[in-house]
Amino acid sequence: MSTETKKEERSLMISLGIIIAVITLLAIVGFVLVKSPDDFVQGQAEATSIRISGMLPGRVSQLYVTEGDRVSAGDTLVHIHSSLLEAKLMQVQAVEAAAAAQNTKIDNGTRSQIIQSAYQLWQEAIAARDIAQKTFDRMQNLYEENVISAQKRDEAQAAVNVATAAEKAAHSQYELAIAGPQQEDKASATAMKTAAQGSVKEVESILQDQYLTAPCDGEIDEIYPNIGELVATGAPIMSLLKTDDTWVSFNVREEMLNDLPIGKEITIMIPALGKMETQATIFYSKDRGTYAIWRATKPNGEWDSRTFQIKARPITPLPSLRPGMTVIYTPQQ
User: Going from the N-terminus, what domains does the chain have, and what CATH number goes with each?
Assistant: First the structure.
């Protein structure tokens, strides 16, 4: 091998050594200077949601708001119309008037007119019972043919029971009129009047829910039925967001709970609001159940770590914070 060849090999080895040294130095510098990004927990903003519902079953007659509207406490939201309850009110008012008249007549003593009136009321009650019974029989046949629901059949049965009870009460009044007014007669008439008045107040209290109002300030989040649709007793008509009662929630591993006690102030970042940072106070901590856990990654020496839900309320109210917005919490290192 010539001297020139040996020099070239020596130069090549030196160059290769320099390159390896530079690469090694860069790797060391990168390992020292470059650090992994901070771990963070992603959550979302939430708000209290109130479902608006009432006792009155009926048809949605008018909606006075639309989704997204801001409302104040006491604002009228919806009108529910129920011809059935209005007819029921007329019925119980008529019963109340009849009971009041009967009570007055008994107080005035037994006369032939009183006896005749009691008899007529009894006959009317019998006719009402017969009509209710025939209606129930028809409903029963329709129910057996799967034309109507069990609810309709049960309502007809309830009407029969009410009519039967009214017929018995009217018959008792007729017998009392024949026997002549006594202290017991007066007490019975008074009780009938009181019961009739109670029935009127009951129906009137239900009819008060034909106009539903906002229980607090907020924003209409979602409306469920359309105008003209039927709603049942207690069925939600719409949901109202209390935008002044917002908070944020996170799901964290249980080993992080030691740094997230209730009452602690944490710093959160809201990307949708220009990555704005604000302080929030933790007020809630609860496990998410056995269905939501972090599984161990090693077969030995590890255990399952449960997931907990953490809720925190911003210390400074944020009107622009909307439910559903992403919220970031970065644990302190």
Answer: 41-47+242-329 (2.40.30.170), 50-81+215-238 (2.40.50.100), 83-209 (no CATH)
Closest Cα to residue 235, out of 33, 56, 25, 26? 56
SS3 content of the chain, % helix, strand, coil (to 5): 45, 25, 25
Q: Provide the residue-wise pLDDT of the chain in tens; the chain has 333 residues.
A: 566 666 666 776 777 677 777 787 777 766 555 544 457 889 999 998 899 988 878 888 889 999 989 999 989 899 888 777 667 767 777 777 777 777 776 666 556 677 778 788 888 888 888 888 888 888 888 878 787 888 877 887 888 788 888 888 888 887 777 766 556 666 666 777 777 777 767 766 666 778 888 999 999 989 999 998 888 888 899 999 988 888 999 998 888 888 899 999 999 999 999 999 999 999 999 887 665 555 554 555 566 678 899 999 999 888 888 888 999 998 875
- Cα–Cα distance measured from residue 60 to residue 228, given in angstroms and rounded to the nearest whole number: 5
Secondary structure (3-state) at 296: coil
